[in-house]
């Protein structure tokens, strides 16, 4: 019976990791795949490598928090399966319904429900986690807002890179070791821009591994079924499996969905969100990448829109002409990696207070406010449901 429960626990953990890989790979490498800077196979390889790296280097702190620190209740094989079932079930339902669900918040909710039912919840740690859940989206909003107001036009110019014909790199194989060099038409600017896009994807994969591997394996580590690093290898491998299979579809979806989000904006959002998630993971705090990224997008658009107004005018009561389409204005003015249109880099931009609100069209919105609100609400409702369901199961059923 014990062997059967152990095998079932491994199976559910792999299922959770598989779904994490399917969703996270699209988020991390969708822009790179959509701009033809990397293939889907290459994205899956990089996702597997860097998710494993994040899990091994930063992930143990999150595994420790979820597996042993959050509740004093010992994770039996059956309890582990039930907790993983809630996490995997939430992921599965969110994929079917097309509604993003935070695996980290759902995992914390399910484990917190167990702790409440058994009266073993570490309330101090739970309060710390919830506090960071409230603070981190605000930080993402304001950091992105500052970038949008003061640095975004400069970044648009810096990344105005058109993709040329032919291979990005070629190799001189005359020596014992192949020596790479730029392709016939590749410019140093194109190479650097492409490297940044791919590098940001790798950084996002690292942060996903740091935060999300724990969601798949923490209960198994908590009950002693697996040691820390073998469990992380299992979770990382399951994420890789999802990256090579179901993620191919999500990479297409994310790449297409980001057509209204310029590549520069995607890079800023990815860098800000990944940094916050990696920082929290190092503290042992499971974090929701979707909520943080959503607020980063809102903050970046808000900051970009406020460039039409000087701070002195704001103090005097003049409201900025804020449009949620603030970022898309630059998409037609300068090409980015993978693009062929626009004016060349270095053409300059108007200073703060002198940009026209007409340059920030409202017709092509960066995000849909109703959808954004729905995502944020559901991101909190799903963990709440997991918490209540876990509480009822562990409180009234003989688990």
How would you describe the overall organization of this protein?
There is one protein chain. By secondary structure, this protein is mainly α. It has one domain. It is 67% helix and 2% strand. It has 14 helices and two strands, in the order H-H-H-H-H-H-H-E-E-H-H-H-H-H-H-H. A two-stranded antiparallel ribbon has the order 1-2. Helix 1 crosses helix 9, helix 2 crosses helix 8 and helix 3 runs parallel beside helix 8 (188-222). The protein is globular. Residues 321-326, 331-335, 340-346 and 360-366 have low confidence and may be disordered.
State the end-to-end distance. Answer: 15 Å
- Average pLDDT figure: 78
Largest sheet: 2 strands, antiparallel
**How does the overall form come out from the CA principal axes?**
globular
Using DSSP, what is the number of strands?
Answer: 2
Helix/strand order, N-terminal first? HHHHHHHEEHHHHHHH
Q: What structural category arises from helix and sheet content? A: mainly alpha
Low-confidence stretches: 321-326, 331-335, 340-346, 360-366
**Helix content estimate:** 55-70%
Radius of gyration, Cα only, in angstroms?
A: 23 Å
Number of domains: 1
Helix count from the secondary structure assignment: 14
Tell me the fraction of residues in β-strands, as a range. under 5%
Strand order of the largest sheet: 1-2
